[in-house]
Design brief:
Layout lengths: L1 H6 L9 H4 L3 E5 L5 H10 L3 E3 L5 H13 L6 H6 L2 H5 L4 H10 L8 E4 L3 H11 L4 E6 L2 H6 L19 H18 L5 E6 H6 L1 H12 L19 H7 L5 H17 L16 H4 L9
Parallel strand pairs: 1-3, 1-4, 2-3, 4-5
Helix pairs in contact: 8-10, 10-14
């Protein structure tokens, strides 16, 4: 086993192995706040693999590409075998890569990547003691604000806004895969993007306590803003998005979005669809 070999110093790394085997894995759909949360946890003292230009990020991304080349294909995701894929994740090599890139092992390392939403079960098999943080954002906001860089994953190379239904199906499949992980991981927690933006101290404080990290006072929350909550409505108002396309997207998302608490109802939902200025006043506790 990699853990036994690392304990016997079969790796070039020299830090305490117990930290290596307890990473914080951040998962979610693209544009849901994973990078934001990774940066915040980095400020709290973790070693966050979140800089896309770093060698460590490129290595981790290559792992996900190798074990699941078609992360943007719902059919491929459904056929994904996490147990078999877990053999492609080597803790020994990861230890060496982290060490070479400045990790000293004093706190857990953090990995955040949209691809991991589909591969997370393999990562949990490779690191059974990992803490999994699922960042959830209203898919209407997350999907409709996907940038041009996601065109390479869209059928025909179209802009994401031109294929909202495709991205909706992908969101549903990724959410299903991540939900299954909650039953397999010993340490699984969900973070609402909307709550994080509206109550940063409170939400970060709960997360830090769950992850056994330093108090939230060590984190700069000035980059957190609630202005993008319900942004799809502004896109419609500005003529950048067609309301009929959003209705089709809602149909594709179906019960998956409703179960997550995004119903647009002041009586049942996590928050009420509305303008960004009043969104924080409308956040409610989700019904379990």
């Amino acid at each position: 086993m990699d853990e036994e070999r690392l304990m016997n110093n079969d790796s070039k790394s020299e830090f305490p192995a117990q930290f290596l085997f307890k990473p914080i894995l951040i998962v979610g759909f693209p544009n849901s706040g994973m990078s934001l949360l990774a940066r915040l946890l980095h400020q709290a003292g973790t070693f966050a693999v979140s800089d896309r230009k770093s060698e460590s990020w490129k290595y981790f991304d290559r792992i996900d590409i190798d074990i699941l080349p078609g992360w943007n294909d719902p059919d491929i995701i459904r056929r994904f075998d996490p147990h078999q894929a877990s053999f492609g994740i080597s803790a020994l090599t990861i230890a060496d890569v982290l060490c070479e890139n400045g990790y000293i092992g004093d706190l857990p390392w953090v990995w955040a990547n949209p691809r991991a939403g589909a591969t997370i079960q393999a990562w949990v098999e490779a690191f059974p003691e990992a803490s999994v943080v699922h960042v959830i954002r209203d898919p209407l906001d997350a999907i409709t604000t996907l940038g041009e860089e996601f065109s390479e994953f869209t059928p025909g190379g179209k802009l994401p806004r031109q294929e909202l239904e495709f991205w909706g199906r992908l969101w549903v499949e990724n959410d299903r895969r991540i939900s299954k992980t909650s039953f397999k991981s010993e340490s699984f927690v969900e973070v609402r993007y909307e709550a994080l933006c509206c109550r940063p101290h409170q939400e970060l404080g709960k997360l830090m306590q769950f992850l056994d990290l330093p108090e939230v006072g060590s984190v700069d929350i000035r980059e957190i803003s609630a202005r993008d909550i319900g942004i799809y409505r502004k896109l419609i108002a500005d003529g950048l998005l067609r309301s009929e396309d959003v209705k089709k997207l809602k149909t594709v998302l179906g019960d998956s979005r409703t179960i997550r608490g995004y119903t647009g109802s002041s009586h049942r939902g996590f928050y009420v669809d509305g303008n960004a200025q009043s969104s924080c006043n409308q956040i409610l506790t989700p019904v379990m």
